[in-house]
Design brief:
two-stranded antiparallel sheet, 37 helices, endosome
Length: 750
């Protein structure tokens, strides 16, 4: 394999061939070393890592010497050099100074290789092996590099030139083949090297007439701080370089990469930019130009104001617009935007950069354009601390968000939609016009028209408008003037016409309820009724199964949760003068009655139990909570006997429904459910019923017995429940609980 490294008949393949073959050589060297190391194991005790040659046994030494003698008998120079370099580490078995003696000899051997490309890769391999086995022997590495410098003029000799003519390879392409090897050699030398050595390297390069290839490798290999501190020196050397062969723009690109990592002296910064940009702006090839400009944009953003950034962006637009050159440079243009928003976090400053939005117009491929918009929005959400009303920011970001929104189509993935919606919502939350609530509402109306295809954005807008209505109430301390009352009604109307456009049924239900609560708090009673009626009429449309996080789940639990929340709101909603007593509660009960529940579900009974809690609360003289400045039914009816009679009628109807359901659970397989529901209903009566009523008292005893009848009741729960009743009986006006406790037997499990 190593013989192949003398063959340069396909010269462009040489660096790849070098990597493949040295990989085989490394494996070979490792296997030989491990084989000899295994021979040193004495009484099953292996050698320590820092062993000395004295602790190596004779057999291992003999084998090791045998390897070196075999290699020495290889006639050709290149295979002999590579194979010996591959097992260089094995010298540790023979003597302490073995490696330090071999390295200079191998370095000198390379002088016998005539082809400069083959020689430079041989030096790179020796440097790599040397750094691995003896990093302290840096002198040999330095000597290796200086040898290379001495033979560098061979590159322009007749032999090489003739070979290039035969293979039809141009000099610039040929020179780039040297870069990986020289870069590696210089990186090995520069590793933890003192400043003095690096300065000496620079001087050597100058003596060679500032060879561009070497200069490029020096800038790639040396520490960024070292290069940045001497930026003006390097610019001087670049200017003096011979233009033929290695292009100057690549040198400026390498310099720019260093200046992105380390800062040059402050006084030189503007001059450095001017010198570099003079060369970059003259580049005719758009690809060469953008590769350079991309690197120097970061330097400009890092050290200068928006004026310089604007000039650079204008120059990029000027170079990349002719013949639509930007279409082949989207990654670099994206990188430029990324760098600009990394350094400019003040968005009013960013959008006042005149050429920033025209620069965005170059992204005409939709998916790339959307990616760029996402980057800008992510930066805005991350860095914008205070809410804004700056018209420059709002107009620019609305345009960017509109671009993202308009990219959504039937094929867009749900994750992508969710991500875009989150970014747009982040922007909406950051917009605030302070006390100018009308302007704020106008913004939300405009946003609704622009982002109608993304449901999470519409949901956010409804929440934002509800919040706006509540802020208005807070400012007015609940006492609306004619103007604020009209404004709040406008907010309520916004929500009422937006909610039906949503597809998720539970989102609609919850928003109707939430918006109804907001309308009620702002004394918009007829509007609140409209929301609650809409919610009641929507309940029959709830499907049996709904999609939750991509999986189909039964909807019963979600419906139960919503209805419980709804009941707690209905307590404070006053009756409409033209609709009859408890019209909303009756309407909701009819809907629940007609809804088709799962056969094995007890949710209907659980809902009816919660209705009893509500009706019990409604029968009190004063309700347990109120909405400020809204008269609930306790004030409207003042405990009127007809009103209480209506509540009692409803209670009887609901209790009858619950008892009918308990009867249907009399089969053997449903007895456990019957027991649990009976006890739950019993607890409801104890907590909310008036047990001085004989019928109710008898019903509670029957339910207690039913819960225990078939042995499914939990004895601990029953005992605790009975103890609670006995404790309650000691309270004033609760003496009737004493009689009840005597009528509640505890059945044994037998």
């Amino acid at each position: 394999c190593s013989k192949l490294l003398s063959d340069t008949t396909v010269i462009q393949f040489y660096p790849s061939k070098f990597v493949l073959i040295t990989d085989i050589l490394d494996t070979f060297g490792k296997l030989v070393y491990e084989r000899i190391l295994s021979m040193c194991v004495d009484n099953r005790v292996s050698l320590p890592d820092n062993f000395s040659p004295e602790s190596v046994n004779d057999t291992a030494k003999e084998t090791c010497l045998n390897w070196f003698f075999k290699i020495a008998s290889i006639r050709e120079l290149i295979p002999r050099f590579y194979v010996e370099a591959a097992i260089l580490k094995c010298n540790k078995f023979l003597s302490k100074t073995g490696i330090s003696e071999c390295l200079p000899r191998l370095t000198s051997m390379i002088r016998g290789i005539g082809d400069p490309l083959v020689a430079v890769y041989a030096r790179a391999y020796l440097c790599r092996v040397g750094m691995e086995v003896a990093p302290q022997l840096k002198e040999s590495l330095n000597k290796n590099f200086f040898d290379f410098l001495l033979t560098f003029k061979q590159i322009h000799g007749d032999t090489v030139q003739n070979q290039l003519v035969v293979q039809c390879v141009e000099i610039p392409l040929y020179l780039t083949l040297y870069s990986p090897a020289i870069d590696w050699i210089l990186q090995c030398i520069a590793y933890r090297a003192p400043e003095v050595l690096l300065t000496e390297m620079m001087e050597r390069c100058k003596k060679l007439g500032n060879n561009a290839l070497l200069l490029n490798s020096v800038m790639s290999a040396f520490r960024a701080e070292f290069i940045a501190a001497r930026s003006m020196d390097f610019i001087g050397m670049i200017k003096e370089c011979d233009e033929s062969g290695f292009p100057k723009h690549l040198l400026f690109r390498s310099l720019g990469l260093n200046l992105a990592l380390a800062d040059p002296p402050e006084n030189d910064r503007l001059q450095i930019l001017n010198e570099a940009w003079k060369v970059i702006t003259k580049l005719k090839n758009p690809q060469d130009y953008i590769n350079c400009a991309e690197v120097w944009v970061e330097y400009t953003c890092r050290h200068f104001t928006k004026r310089e950034v604007n000039t650079v962006l204008a120059d990029v637009i000027k170079h990349m617009t002719p013949d639509r050159a930007f279409e082949d440079a989207y990654p670099q243009l994206q990188s430029i935007i990324q760098k600009v928003i990394t350094y400019i976090h003040d968005f009013s400053l960013l959008f006042s950069v005149e050429k920033f939005l025209p620069f965005l117009d170059m992204f005409q491929k939709e998916n790339v354009r959307v990616e760029v918009c996402k980057c800008i929005m992510e930066s805005f959400i991350k860095h914008q601390q205070e809410p804004t009303k700056d018209p420059v920011i709002l107009n620019a970001l609305l345009h960017i968000c509109k671009t993202m929104h308009d990219s959504v189509n039937a094929l867009t993935l749900e994750d992508e939609k969710r991500m875009l919606a989150a970014l747009i919502n982040g922007f909406i939350k950051m917009v605030s016009f302070g006390r100018d609530f009308e302007q704020q509402l106008s913004f939300y109306v405009e946003a609704r028209s622009m982002f109608c295809n993304l449901e999470p954005v519409l949901v956010q807008l409804i929440h934002s408008v509800n919040q706006l209505a509540m802020e208005t109430r807070k400012v007015m301390r609940g006492n609306h003037s004619r103007k604020t009352a009209a404004f709040v009604r406008a907010c309520v109307a916004f929500c009422f016409i937006t909610i039906p456009s949503l597809s998720s049924i539970f989102t609609r239900l919850n928003l109707y309820l939430h918006s109804g609560q907001v309308a009620l708090a702002n004394q918009c009673l007829s509007q609140a009724d409209a929301f609650f009626k809409a919610a009641v009429s929507l309940v029959p449309e709830v499907p049996k199964m709904i999609s939750v996080d991509g999986k189909m789940r039964p909807s019963d639990a979600f419906l139960l949760e919503f209805l419980c929340n709804f009941f707690s709101t209905l307590l404070v909603v006053p009756d409409h003068p033209e609709q009859g007593v408890l019209f909303l509660v009756r309407g909701l009960l009819n809907v629940i009655q007609d809804y088709t529940w799962e056969d094995n579900s007890d949710d209907k009974v659980r809902i009816y139990t919660n209705v009893l809690h509500l009706l019990s609360a409604m029968a009190q003289e004063a309700y347990i909570y109120h909405v400020d400045k809204v008269d609930s039914n306790d004030n409207l009816y003042g405990g009127d006997s007809k009103f209480l009679a209506e509540i009692n009628k409803l209670c009887e109807t609901v209790i009858a429904q619950i008892l009918d359901h308990l009867k249907t659970l009399g089969k053997e397989e449903t007895l456990k459910r019957q027991s649990q529901l009976a006890l739950s209903f019993f607890n409801t009566i104890i907590a909310h019923g008036d047990l001085r009523n004989n019928k109710l008292n008898q019903l509670s005893v029957n339910l207690w017995n039913l819960a225990q009848k078939h042995g499914f009741a939990d004895t601990k729960t029953m005992v605790k429940t009975l103890e609670y009743i006995k404790r309650q009986s000691k309270q004033p006006e609760m003496s009737h609980f004493t009689d009840l406790a005597l009528r509640l037997p505890l059945q044994s499990r037998t």
